[in-house]
Automatic annotation (TrEMBL):
Protein name in UniProt: Plasmid pRiA4b Orf3-like domain-containing protein
Coiled coil location: none
Tree of life domain: Bacteria
Domain Plasmid pRiA4b Orf3-like: 58-155
Matches recorded under SUPFAM superfamilies: MM3350-like
Natural source organism: Dorea formicigenerans
Length: 247
């Protein structure tokens, strides 16, 4: 994986690492100008989301205080994880909030649903856990970075920055950009395929020792911590490359 992936600021288009972007957003001149020229303001939380076990994938967003956990869950599904309609859950200060709460418990506290508004459950400084799919689980960490007034937006969620797509090299030829990943081999050293090598493989032109595993299918390379897991093929709503307003 790449180290210190970078992303663009929504407002000015400058490029920073995840931690650098958090600092930049506090003083971005273009962002300040937008705020100064706005006639209507609303209260927002600023959240930083990243893969718990792969921090190269990250998002910085602002979301309305009156939005619900269900709204945040849907955003995460739409941009990063949705593949087969799996269940999901937040862990906030030891309380579990599930999409469909399971009340069949013995010693553990029962889970609550996701109808709670963010202003009811979030505080600046909190670190929240998120899980999607309780089998082949994708785990995320969400940090509550700030709470402030910002120009009113139509949508509940505004993306402030996102890591640029990570560039992988084909494991077969070692030179072309990879566009496919073998989910069976994803934890090994050679899971990636480019279009050229895949075409050669399908035409029987590669060494016999090189093969797609028994699964018989490949998944697309995506800008998501769920890449290569289950049947994840990428987002239907957001492009892999985040485009700032200034570009």
């Amino acid at each position: 994986m790449a180290k210190s992936t970078r992303g663009y600021c929504k407002y000015c288009g400058k490029e920073y690492t995840r931690t650098g972007m958090l600092k930049h957003l506090q003083s971005c001149k273009k962002r300040m100008e937008v705020c100064e020229n706005s006639k209507k303001m609303s209260a927002y939380y600023e959240l930083m989301l990243y893969g718990t076990y792969n921090k190269d994938y990250w998002l910085i967003i602002q979301i309305k205080e009156n939005a619900t956990l269900e709204c945040l869950d849907q955003f995460i599904r739409d941009i990063w994880v949705e593949c087969c309609g799996h269940l999901s859950a937040f862990d906030i200060e030891g309380v579990r909030y599930e999409q469909i709460p399971d009340n069949d418990f013995l010693w553990e506290k029962p889970a609550e649903d996701m109808s709670h508004k963010l202003k009811e459950v979030l505080e600046v400084g909190m670190e929240i856990g998120y899980e999607y799919d309780f089998g082949s689980t994708t785990e995320l960490t969400i940090k509550v970075v700030d709470f402030y007034k910002a120009p009113e937006q139509k949508e509940n969620v505004t993306i402030l920055s996102r890591n640029n797509p990570i560039q992988f090299t084909c494991s077969v030829c070692g030179k072309n950009p990879a566009v496919w990943i073998d989910p069976i081999k994803m934890y090994n050293e050679d899971p990636f395929w480019c279009e050229e090598c895949l075409e050669k493989y399908e035409n029987g032109e590669l060494d016999e020792e090189i093969e797609v595993e028994e699964s018989g299918y490949l998944l697309p390379v995506t800008n998501s911590p769920r890449m290569g897991v289950c049947g994840y093929e990428g987002s239907d709503f957001y492009p892999n490359q985040f485009e700032p307003d200034d570009m």
